[in-house]
What we know:
The structure is a homodimer.
Chain A: E1 2-8, E2 17-23, E3 30-40, H1 42-49, E4 68-75, E5 89-92, E6 95-97, H2 103-106, E7 117-118, E8 130-134, E9 139-140, H3 156-166, E10 174-178, H4 184-193, E11 197-202, H5 208-213, E12 218-221, H6 225-230, E13 235-240, H7 248-252, E14 255-263, E15 271-273, H8 275-281, E16 284-287, H9 293-306, E17 312-316, H10 320-329, E18 335-339
Parallel strand pairs in A: 10-11, 10-13, 11-12, 13-14, 14-16, 17-18
Antiparallel strand pairs in A: 1-2, 3-4, 3-8, 3-18, 4-5, 5-9, 6-7
Helix pairs in contact in A: 3-4, 3-9
Amino acid sequence: MATIKAWAVFKPNGELQPFEYELPPLGAEEVEVKVEYCGICHTDLGFIANEGANIIPIPYPLVPGHEITGTIVAMGPIAAQKGLSIGQKVGVGWMKSSCGHCDPCLNGEQNLCINGQATIMGNYGGWAERVRVHWIWTIPLPEGLDIRDAGPLMCAGITVFAPLMELDISPTSHIGVIGIGGLGHLALQFAAEWGAKVTAFTNNPAKTEEIKKLGASTVIAGNDAKEWDSLKGTFDLIIVTAAAHLDWDKIMQLLAPNGKLHILGILYEPIPISVIFLTLGQRSLSSSLVGSRGVMDKMLRFAARHGIKPITEHFPMSKVNEAIRKLESGKAAYRVVLDADF
Amino acid sequence: MATIKAWAVFKPNGELQPFEYELPPLGAEEVEVKVEYCGICHTDLGFIANEGANIIPIPYPLVPGHEITGTIVAMGPIAAQKGLSIGQKVGVGWMKSSCGHCDPCLNGEQNLCINGQATIMGNYGGWAERVRVHWIWTIPLPEGLDIRDAGPLMCAGITVFAPLMELDISPTSHIGVIGIGGLGHLALQFAAEWGAKVTAFTNNPAKTEEIKKLGASTVIAGNDAKEWDSLKGTFDLIIVTAAAHLDWDKIMQLLAPNGKLHILGILYEPIPISVIFLTLGQRSLSSSLVGSRGVMDKMLRFAARHGIKPITEHFPMSKVNEAIRKLESGKAAYRVVLDADF
């Protein structure tokens, strides 16, 4: 039995504390990855705060972390036959395992596996020396991606990329991105390289120039009625990354006929939806969580080919509490990455 | 100038009264149709009641009626070049005209025309001797459809059929239909002939056998927790035709991964949507209004080929007030059709 060092919270909103746990023998389909870097996602913070306790109860101690990059250090006998090798650089995201035999798995939608397990739900995540993961969710990093900053692609990246594929978004589309943070700054880059016309919505006018460099041709910073009116009925897709209380009626009216409003990020509270605005333009409201293994690979190759990368700020993992405080102050870069230093 | 006899309401919730109006010269792209039959749709009743006054204000006098079948009696010079002929049997539905040159029109989605006009919005509808309609919305009735009962296909029929095409619903799907009335009883027939497994939800257990004959293999009549639980996660599409206050969280959890909840009928009040249930299964909420001209033709041919037809009860148009009272009492057949008797 190997002892693993990790950082855990022991109660809702607790500080991260050193934590050790024992690993059982490695499963036949499992891969053991030495964690080198791990991003901090808002879902980690939501789990630490136990925000959705009535829907997703969090067992403590909780070891967060699901934007992992690192090195394969061990493989079970089945995993060893799946094209992976010891020493290979890989990423691990939200999904820890999928069953392979349910309907979604058999259809290549392993992220929708009805028996699937998440890296940090009932399992110890990536703010640790090592993690164990099913071989199918052990994702080889393609040539050209920097292992230091690829972690956030494994969750934030796939989350904003998958809707472009799943919703059949054409490069001729007009795409809006509401909320330019960890997810949003990647959504802008993916949407622009997708070939789309991109408009960003932010509540921080100071970031306008920076946001344009990320790929937005237009930046709406605020609630100017004229600006909003001029955009009515023009968006084929609006990606909402800010799970805040928004004026949903106003946003839906920005959609073109057949337009899609896609909400990302975990939103536990019901929101009021005026169906009439969906009806009149044959529009839809949808949401999703990460993406399938096939889409994950496509996303990483697309990012490598187009030079899409998270804008990050690094902290040693031992300074995780400090990192979270900076993130919560709103003063950190788009994504914070922890460098494992056990 | 021709004088047209019609039935109109002059104030919200008014009785229908005889009304006459003058027609201007026929437009070049217009077709004049002698009304023989016209269905009563819930949207007619909603307009009579001025239900959505803050979103769609109704100008009075209002001549309702948009489930029309009849005969072409005149055509403008452009309309006359579009394959139609005097004396031809045709149908007219929700759409009176579309511009032909906006984005949706150019893409064959004329029902989403941004300059489109509806048959009963600012125009006098089909509870009248004659109506005028753009040639593109003058729909030839295919061989095998009974003109007496084809009217409800022009609105209720296309409304439930179009989502099967627009949402790319496979015949391998499990389709649920909530609310088995004017729209629902057609949705069951279309879904069953589509090849899908069909489950109906009704609050009227007495109709169970009748509903099975319409194509449902399972009928859920009530709120039995075990029955509902057994259906969790199994529907690829749920069509909601009852615009009542439903338990949306419970309904969304019936959807399979990638499942679609499609709401039909006009719903002015916002409904509370728990986005988390969309997120976890990559599901969507959508809505639509009728369908394009191309889909309209496909629907009519599909209905004729499969013997799909509305179950109707006929009243002379002069008894329209009586017909509405019977409809509102819940004792009428699935669809009421008025026979023009001016």
